[in-house]
Description:
The protein is an all-alpha fold. It has a domain at about 15-85. Helices cover about 55% and strands about 0% of the residues. It is built from four helices and no strands. Helix 1 (about 20-40) packs antiparallel against helix 3 (about 60-80). It is globular, with a radius of gyration of 18 Å.
Amino acid sequence: MSTIKVKEIKDDAIIHVPVNKAYYVMVKAVLYDLFTTLQEKGVAEETLKNIMNKEYANLEPTEKSFYTVTLLLAEIERQASLNNLVEEKEIQANAMLSPEESADNEESTDSN
Protein backbone atom coordinates (compact mmCIF):
# COMPACT_ATOMS: atom_id res chain seq x y z
CA MET A 1 0.00 0.00 0.00
CA SER A 2 1.38 3.43 -0.93
CA THR A 3 1.56 6.33 1.45
CA ILE A 4 1.41 10.09 1.05
CA LYS A 5 2.62 12.89 3.27
CA VAL A 6 0.12 15.31 4.79
CA LYS A 7 0.52 18.25 7.13
CA GLU A 8 -1.39 18.32 10.40
CA ILE A 9 -1.51 20.75 13.27
CA LYS A 10 0.65 19.60 16.17
CA ASP A 11 -1.19 17.98 19.09
CA ASP A 12 -0.26 20.76 21.53
CA ALA A 13 -0.86 23.66 19.11
CA ILE A 14 -3.26 26.50 19.87
CA ILE A 15 -4.15 28.48 16.75
CA HIS A 16 -5.43 32.06 16.90
CA VAL A 17 -7.61 32.86 13.90
CA PRO A 18 -9.01 36.38 13.46
CA VAL A 19 -12.71 36.28 12.55
CA ASN A 20 -14.70 39.10 10.96
CA LYS A 21 -18.48 39.50 11.10
CA ALA A 22 -19.00 38.06 7.60
CA TYR A 23 -17.31 34.80 8.63
CA TYR A 24 -19.21 34.79 11.93
CA VAL A 25 -22.52 35.09 10.02
CA MET A 26 -21.42 32.22 7.74
CA VAL A 27 -20.70 30.00 10.76
CA LYS A 28 -24.12 30.92 12.21
CA ALA A 29 -25.68 29.93 8.87
CA VAL A 30 -23.98 26.53 9.02
CA LEU A 31 -25.27 25.98 12.56
CA TYR A 32 -28.78 27.07 11.54
CA ASP A 33 -28.68 24.65 8.59
CA LEU A 34 -27.55 21.80 10.85
CA PHE A 35 -30.27 22.72 13.34
CA THR A 36 -33.00 22.62 10.68
CA THR A 37 -31.57 19.42 9.16
CA LEU A 38 -31.65 17.68 12.53
CA GLN A 39 -35.20 18.94 13.17
CA GLU A 40 -36.28 17.64 9.75
CA LYS A 41 -34.83 14.24 10.75
CA GLY A 42 -37.19 14.34 13.72
CA VAL A 43 -34.66 15.30 16.38
CA ALA A 44 -36.48 17.28 19.07
CA GLU A 45 -35.24 20.71 20.14
CA GLU A 46 -34.66 19.42 23.68
CA THR A 47 -32.41 16.66 22.28
CA LEU A 48 -30.42 19.29 20.37
CA LYS A 49 -29.89 21.24 23.58
CA ASN A 50 -28.61 18.07 25.25
CA ILE A 51 -26.11 17.23 22.49
CA MET A 52 -23.54 19.37 24.26
CA ASN A 53 -23.85 17.15 27.36
CA LYS A 54 -23.13 13.92 25.50
CA GLU A 55 -19.80 12.28 24.76
CA TYR A 56 -18.62 13.34 21.30
CA ALA A 57 -17.77 9.73 20.37
CA ASN A 58 -21.39 8.67 21.00
CA LEU A 59 -22.94 11.21 18.62
CA GLU A 60 -24.25 10.58 15.12
CA PRO A 61 -22.27 12.29 12.30
CA THR A 62 -24.71 15.21 11.91
CA GLU A 63 -24.85 15.63 15.69
CA LYS A 64 -21.02 15.76 15.73
CA SER A 65 -21.14 18.53 13.14
CA PHE A 66 -23.72 20.42 15.22
CA TYR A 67 -21.57 19.98 18.35
CA THR A 68 -18.37 21.15 16.60
CA VAL A 69 -19.92 24.23 14.98
CA THR A 70 -21.65 25.14 18.26
CA LEU A 71 -18.28 25.09 20.05
CA LEU A 72 -16.71 27.21 17.29
CA LEU A 73 -19.51 29.77 17.40
CA ALA A 74 -19.44 29.89 21.20
CA GLU A 75 -15.70 30.56 21.19
CA ILE A 76 -16.04 33.31 18.57
CA GLU A 77 -18.76 34.93 20.69
CA ARG A 78 -16.73 34.49 23.90
CA GLN A 79 -13.68 36.14 22.33
CA ALA A 80 -15.83 38.96 20.95
CA SER A 81 -17.26 39.58 24.43
CA LEU A 82 -13.85 39.47 26.10
CA ASN A 83 -12.58 42.03 23.61
CA ASN A 84 -15.65 44.26 23.92
CA LEU A 85 -16.60 43.65 20.28
CA VAL A 86 -20.27 42.88 20.89
CA GLU A 87 -23.14 45.29 20.47
CA GLU A 88 -26.68 44.84 21.67
CA LYS A 89 -29.49 45.19 19.11
CA GLU A 90 -33.22 44.67 19.18
CA ILE A 91 -34.74 42.16 16.77
CA GLN A 92 -38.27 40.92 16.25
CA ALA A 93 -39.01 38.17 18.74
CA ASN A 94 -41.95 36.68 16.84
CA ALA A 95 -39.94 35.06 14.06
CA MET A 96 -37.07 32.59 14.02
CA LEU A 97 -34.73 34.04 11.43
CA SER A 98 -31.91 32.32 9.62
CA PRO A 99 -28.55 34.10 10.05
CA GLU A 100 -28.82 35.51 6.52
CA GLU A 101 -32.31 36.88 7.20
CA SER A 102 -31.09 38.26 10.51
CA ALA A 103 -28.16 40.03 8.80
CA ASP A 104 -30.49 41.38 6.11
CA ASN A 105 -32.87 42.61 8.82
CA GLU A 106 -30.00 44.37 10.62
CA GLU A 107 -28.96 46.12 7.39
CA SER A 108 -32.49 47.33 6.68
CA THR A 109 -33.00 48.62 10.24
CA ASP A 110 -29.55 50.25 10.32
CA SER A 111 -30.41 52.32 7.23
CA ASN A 112 -33.61 53.72 8.81
